[in-house]
Amino acid sequence: MVRFSKGVVDRNGNLVETDIREIPQRAMLQCPHTIMVADHYRKDNSCRCDDPQHTEMAEWGYTWRKDRWM
Asked: What is the distance between the alpha carbons of residues 32 and 62, in angstroms, rounded to a whole number?
């Protein structure tokens, strides 16, 4: 499993993990681009390379061609 989280400092100065998500390594390796961003994966752990609404891909330099981000 690959663990993703955000760290925030609470009012006592302690680092606290939030937004924890674990994704199986095999799911990430099935992604054509092996993207290491938790939001790139759906709740069923499938990648969003085939999702035209996943516009972050364009921000990362990918272009939509036919039926997936390339």
From this structure: 12
Give 35's Cβ-side CA count (13 Å radius). Answer: 22
Per-residue pLDDT of the chain (70 residues; tens, 9 = 90+): 999 999 999 999 999 999 999 999 999 999 999 999 999 999 999 999 999 999 999 999 999 999 999 9
Sole residue written with tokens 């759906």: 42
Residue type present at position 17 = E
Residue length of the chain: 70
Hey, how many other C-beta atoms are within 10 angstroms of the C-beta on 46?
13
- Rounded-to-integer distance, Cα 10 and Cα 15, Å: 6
The encoded tokens of residue 3 equal 């663990």
